[in-house]
Amino acid sequence: MHDASPWLAPRWGEAPNRTITRLVERRIKQGAWVHTLTNATAATLADILDTDRIRVAPIPPATVADASRDDLPVRLAGRPYVLCLGAEKRRKRLDAVIRGFVDAAQNDADIALVLAGAEGDGSSDVVQALDEVGQVRSRIYRLGPVTEAKRNALVAFARALCYVSHHEGEGLPVLEAQGLGIPVVIGDDSAVAETSGGAAISCDPADVSSIGGALRTAVNDEAKRAELKASGRQNAARFTPERFLDDMTDIYRQATNR
């Protein structure tokens, strides 16, 4: 199970995924084990499913290799930007990020905000937030879905990544950015905080000024940026294919009593 969203979706206005919840609950009663990605998600699933047969094996991030500035949108050429990566779902809190960016942009005439991801149930909130930002709107780029090459370039050349989503399973974009030495801003999600290993700037996604302050620090505080560059890379290095293989092998051995 990547995360507990099939059960928790009503908290952000979505219908629960009954197909998944019923299947998993039936399999648990039949003795199945659950693989998930963080201890935070494991604890949530343990409460929901009432089982101790849940084990954690974090997935390593994809390697962002051979990124080229040529794959960036022309309008971003040479311009620093904060990147938000992922579909426009309510739980991604992109409307809050947009309003927080307006707060941060008041003292920075160059920084841009980039939203890259498909439309989702939060798209109407994104549109409403964009309609409210005034002149800063010209510095916010809503790209929609992007190719793998463009995605890699957006991550590799970002000034910072903003990932304040909640009810995530792991938060792989955080690790991708950290592995490249890019500062990351996160919210209050326990799984993402666990994945970040403390090598990120935290904010309160319910507080626009908190988001704005975190973005200003990630973009402009060179001492903090240098600290996060080192600590982020060190944290991302913990998530390797070898570790994942060992963790999964251990899970299978426990499940089969070997």
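Second entry:
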Amino acid sequence: MTSTILVVDDTAQNVKLLADVLTAKGYRAVTAASGAQALAAIERERPDLVLLDVVMPEMSGYEVCRKIRDNPATAMLPVVMVTALDPTQERVKGIEAGADDFLTKPINQPELLARVRSLLRIKVLHDELSELNRSLEHRVQEQVTQLERLGRLKRFFSPQLAELIVAGGAEDPLKSHRRDITVVFLDLRGFTAFAETAEPEEVMGVLREYHAEMGRLILAHEGTLERFAGDGIMVFFNDPVPVPNPAERAIRMTLASAPGSPRATRRSAPSASKAASTTAPSAP
């Protein structure tokens, strides 16, 4: 892609000389005769580099350079100051104004072209870095969005299924399909009698602990909670997320929830769960 260079000088002869040299080397030259024209050309042409004369009427090259740096869109635009004044003194002023490099008049063509090539290489690297940063920010935002979706989905699905859904690796869980699954039915022995005599707060406390403990066991054995109502719980193994040895997982989970298990909830209220397990084809 051809680089565009803006040449700014109030002397037409100087502008033509620089523009001809740059054009002969394959660059696209755009010209301006004043500071105001230069700022307008920058907005319009989006140049890759600016050759800026220091001494101009109305607005000096230093003022133009400061305005370029004050604009976030052009803050990193390479600017080369061109001056016939004392280079030592002008260099300090130019650095303070934000210039990247200096050329003294009369212009030495090999030096001009070498500085232009060097600054354009730096600009290309900066542009690539900026693009990588934008890409990284976009990817980070996408990942944050995925994590937020994953957090919401985990409230309703197993972590494995939620991660597959977010990653786009899961088919529609409601789509009709056939699969051998293991189903576990769980409830609390004696819960009905307990619920009829206990205070509502105690009943809810028992259910809260029971659901929390069974939730941990279901996730640990990679089951999927199909539904629950009161103390009744139904768990699927091998659907919608396929798992190896679903029947064995179901048995291990059931044993872990049984009376006497270290993981079983221990309360004076009905705390021992009873379970029934069956293997059957999954339904749509």
